[in-house]
């Protein structure tokens, strides 16, 4: 089932790319969501409408969780559920950047079993099915072999270095870099381009579900900020941050994080 679901997700991601790239980011209609939840554009809504229609038609017994669809408790009774971010990095899309992605996943009993992350303007398609490894444009990928946290390049927003997150109030001495799409950050770690990523704020499931499987199938470790495995299709679809890296770098990050640290925006 994961392999057939993956084929479905890949086809849907490519179709999403065709729809999204018909819009010119800075000229696309844009609205701000209530309560400071960020922007949404007409491209997000058009992609979401296609995905919801086509994916649910193909798998009518699967539940549905998407950033751009009003949530329903119906999904909680389903064995499998789609977890979808029609455009991850909407702000970047609206600014005319190329670093936004479509993030599509299937979770079964809380575990992601098939996933695709597609950046149409960079022609990058990351994909994974449980037990089948991870790929980029069809070629196998693997996390980096970095073993020293002090030499690692970690994808993270600057607030993640706030002393309140770290034991003794001191962040580790790693090189911090940044990319705007959370899904893309996770895919880049899976690819071995960077040694790890972390976000220490509460994180929406749709931002990270696809990246979780792709990264794990690429040989990495992906947990919440407390070191617990990520589980999806929760009643409140938000997780306690994400820490993802190769085995040694993940262990180094986890050892330095304060389990009682402040959950500030990061």
Automatic annotation (TrEMBL):
GO molecular function annotations of the record: inositol monophosphate 1-phosphatase activity; metal ion binding
Biological process (GO), any one: phosphatidylinositol phosphate biosynthetic process
Gene3D superfamilies the UniProt entry points to: 3.40.190.80, Fructose-1,6-Bisphosphatase, subunit A, domain 1
Cofactor needs: Mg(2+)
Sequence positions that bind Mg(2+): 67, 85, 87-88, 207
Positions in coiled-coil regions: none
Name of the protein described by the UniProt record: Myo-inositol-1(Or 4)-monophosphatase
Superkingdom to which the source organism belongs: Bacteria
Cross-referenced SUPFAM superfamilies: Carbohydrate phosphatase (SSF56655)
Similarity comment text for this entry: Belongs to the inositol monophosphatase superfamily.
Keyword line: Magnesium, Metal-binding
């Amino acid at each position: 089932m994961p392999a057939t679901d993956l084929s479905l997700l890949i086809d849907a991601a490519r179709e999403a790319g065709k729809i999204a790239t018909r819009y010119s980011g800075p000229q696309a209609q844009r609205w701000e969501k209530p309560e400071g939840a960020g922007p949404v554009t007409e491209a997000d809504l058009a992609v979401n409408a296609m995905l919801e229609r086509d994916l649910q038609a193909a798998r009518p017994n699967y539940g549905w969780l998407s950033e751009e669809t009003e949530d329903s408790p119906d999904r909680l009774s389903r064995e499998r559920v789609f977890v979808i971010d029609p455009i991850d990095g909407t702000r970047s899309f609206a600014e005319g950047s190329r670093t936004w992605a479509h993030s599509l996943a299937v979770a079964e009993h809380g575990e992601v079993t098939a996933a695709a992350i597609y950046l149409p303007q960079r022609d990058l398609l990351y994909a994974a099915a449980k037990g089948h490894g991870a790929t980029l444009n069809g070629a196998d990928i693997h996390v980096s072999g970095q073993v020293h946290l002090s030499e690692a390049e970690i994808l993270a927003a600057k607030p993640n270095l706030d002393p309140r997150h770290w034991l003794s109030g001191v962040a580790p001495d790693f090189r911090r870099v940044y990319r705007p799409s959370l899904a893309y950050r996770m895919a880049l770690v899976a690819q071995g381009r960077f040694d790890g990523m972390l976000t220490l704020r509460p994180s929406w499931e749709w931002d990270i579900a696809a990246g979780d499987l792709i990264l794990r199938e690429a040989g990495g470790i992906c947990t919440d900020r407390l070191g617990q495995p990520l589980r999806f299709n929760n009643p409140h679809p938000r997780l306690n941050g994400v820490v993802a890296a190769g085995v040694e770098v993940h262990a180094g990050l986890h050892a330095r994080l304060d389990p009682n640290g402040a959950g500030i925006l990061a």
